Amino acid sequence: MLALLTATGAGAQGVAFALFDGWETEASLHHLDLETGALIRIGPVGRPCTNIDFDAAGALYGIDPVNSQLILIDAMTASSSPIGALGGSIAEVTGLTFDTAGRLWMAARDDALGPSLFEVDRDTGAAVWVSAVDEAYFGALASTGGTVFTASDILATMDTTTGVVTPVPGSDLGIWWTRALDFDDLGTLRGLLLCGPCAAPWDVLIVNPIDFNTGTLTGDSLFASHGTWGLAILHGGIFLDGFESGDLTAWSAGTGALSQIVSVD
Predict the structure, then answer these.
(1) β partners of residue 258
(2) How confident is the model over 223-227, as a mean pLDDT?
(3) pLDDT tens across 27-39, in order?
(4) Out of 43, 63, 163, 214, which could bridge 51 as a Cys pair, Cβ 3.0 to 4.6 Å?
């Protein structure tokens, strides 16, 4: 029996997705359990992929960092198709987010322009330079309520018109560097965080709530598997009961439609 947790119901966090082996020849898309941190494999993306985000309609977009392309990913099968080249001389992408107006923003390091904010055309993949971004604040992106946040080892807000970054007063994520960010249905900002100096020879990864008013870690952290990359949360509520016996199913708050995300039989 499936029990619906609506977008306003207790514990409705959204369906979280993460990438594994993002820089490898073929990344894989996983469901990320926000209660346990467990990754359940959906399938291969078919190309490298390090950054992902859902638009308001539930379409999953990503970045192929090797071929410098915007791609579209089927969240049910993990298969992907290229939309188009980002252009320029982009060497590294650290953040990707849709804002509430449906505009797609990307934080990326360009060989010629340095750390910068770009607006990406979702139809062509072309990345248009907006402004330079201070290296100290250069990192992952997330958006909520008209505000775009960026995080490296601190949390800040970003003016997408000017690229000006304003640190959240008192923000300090300590030794953690942010690999990915997204908001869940409860309005909690969740970060995929990397501890660079930890646990040699491997870095330590956690998924942790971040207080976006203070920029500090809150609550209990989940240890993420080494090699985990982008984080994206599909909003609208989820069916949880029955997950262990078969299917994870998403509910669209906009249409009321049900769609199977992945079978775990």
Answers:
(1) 251
(2) 85
(3) 999 998 888 888 8
(4) 63
Task: Report the relative pairing of strands 80-85 and 69-73 from DSSP bridges.
Answer: antiparallel
Pairing of strands 4-5, 238-239: antiparallel
Q: pLDDT tens digits for 118-159?
A: 999 999 999 999 999 988 888 999 999 899 999 999 999 999
Neighbours of 256 (CB within 10 A): 8
CA atoms of 6 and 12, how far apart (whole Å): 6
Contact 71, 63 (CB under 8 A): yes
Cβ-Cβ contacts under 8 Å for 258 (sequence gap 6 or more): 239, 249, 250, 251, 252
Q: Where are the domains of the chain?
A: 17-234, 240-265
- The pLDDT tens digits of the residues spanning 234-246 come to 876 444 333 333 3
Give the closest residue to 262 by CA, choosing from 28, 5, 86.
28
CA terminus-to-terminus distance, the chain: 16
Name the fold adopted by 17-234: Neuraminidase (2.120.10)
pTM for the predicted model, two decimal places:
0.85
Q: Report which secondary-structure segment, H or E, holds 261.
A: strand 258-263
Q: How far is CA 179 from CA 231, 232, 255, in A?
A: 9, 12, 32
Q: What angle do CA 230, 190, 235 make, to 5 degrees?
A: 80
**Contact between residue 206 and residue 199 where contact means Cβ atoms under 8 Å apart:** no
Q: What backbone torsions phi and psi does residue 32 show, to the nearest 5 degrees?
A: -105, 120
